[in-house]
Amino acid sequence: MNDLQPQNDEQDDAFDEYSDQGAEMADDVQRFNQGTDLDDGGASASGAEDNTATASSEHAIVTCSTSAGPLVMHFHKDWSPNGFERATSLFEKGYYDRSHFFRVVPHFLVQFGIGYNQPQEITEFADASIRDDPKRVDLMPFKEGYVSFAGSGPNSRTSQLFIAYDRAQSLGNSPWETPFGEVVEGTIDTVREFYSEYGDMPPWGKGPQQGPIRNRGSSYIETDFPKLDKFDTCQVKRVASLAVAMEVDHDVPHPKKQEVKSAEVKEQPLKKEARNVRVVDATAEKQEIPALLLMVLLAVVVLVILGVGFAKRRKRKVEKSV
C-alpha cells in the first residue's frame, strides 16, 4: 500500500489484512496461466498464448544517477508482468526523474514514486491503478534489494515503489506486494546510504507526509526535509533475454570502488583539521605557561617585599629596646 506499515511486533498482523483475497488471487493465477489478459488500466498483463514465452522472458535494466550515487535495477517481466510493464514505462517516461526517496526506514524499506511537474498525460497514466499479479512463492520471503509496488488494497498499484532492506521478510503477504525487480548487487550500497535521520512517516516517525508532497511538490521536501536523497535521471534498456540482461549487469559501475577513492580524498582534510585542533591546543598551552610563570614571579616579589618590610620593622623594635 502507499502507506506500508513499519515492521514491528505490534503491527505484523496488519500484513494479513487481505488474506481473504486468496480466492480472487487464485482465479488470477488460473487466468494468467491460461494466457488470459488481466485488466491493468490500459496495459496488457500478458500477450496471446503464442507470445507468452517471449513476453515472460523480457527484462529491463534501469540505470539511474542519484544524490547518493549510482543506482541500477534489473526488472523481470516473469516475476510480475503488470508491475514490470507499469514501472518500466514510468521510468521510460521520466516520471521518477528528480523525485525524492521520501520514506527511508533503515532495515525495512525505501519508498518513492510521487513525481513532480509532470505533463497531465503522464500524471494520469501514473495515477491509473493496475491489477495485482499472481504471487511467486519462489521469490518469498522478500530479500534486500527487491523492488515492488506499494498499494492501499487489492488492485491499487499506481506509481509508488519501494526497495526492501535486509529485515523486510514480513513484506509480501499483501496481494500487491509482488516483487518485479531487484537492485543490481554493485549498487545496493547506494540504497543503504540514503538519508534516514528524519525517520518514518507519521505516526511512526517525523518524516514527510504524502499529501503535502502531492500538493506542494518538491518545494515541500526541499524546505522541510532538505537532506533527503533523490533521483537525478534514469535510463532504461529493455532486453529480450536473461543472458543479455546479465551482460548489462556486469557493465554496472561499482560504487564501492568510487567510495574508496572518495574516502581517500576526504581523509586528508580530516587529518589536517585534526592537526589544526592539536596546534590550537598547543598554542593555548604555550600561552598558559608564561602567564603561570608571571604569577609565580609576582608572588615571589610580594613575598620578598613583605619579608624586607617585616625585617625592617623587627630591626626598629630591637633598636628601641636597646
- Which H/E pattern describes the elements? HHEEHEEHEEEHHHEHH
Strand element count: 8
Strand content: 5-15%
Measured as a percent range, the helix fraction is: 40-55%
Fold and architecture overview:
By secondary structure, the chain is α+β, with helices and mostly antiparallel strands. Helices cover 41% and strands 13% of the residues. It is built from nine helices and eight strands. The chain is elongated and about 110 Å long.
Describe, in short, the structure shown.
This protein has helices at residues 22-33, 52-56, 81-92, 120-127, 188-192, 210-216, 218-224, 242-250, 255-321; strands spanning 59-66, 69-76, 103-105, 109-112, 146-149, 161-164, 181-183, 231-239.
What characteristics describe this protein?
322 residues; alpha+beta; eight-stranded antiparallel sheet; 9 helices; elongated; disordered C terminus
Topology:
Elements: H1 22-33, H2 52-56, E1 59-66, E2 69-76, H3 81-92, E3 103-105, E4 109-112, H4 120-127, E5 146-149, E6 161-164, E7 181-183, H5 188-192, H6 210-216, H7 218-224, E8 231-239, H8 242-250, H9 255-321
Antiparallel strand pairs: 1-2, 1-8, 2-7, 3-4, 4-6, 5-6, 5-7
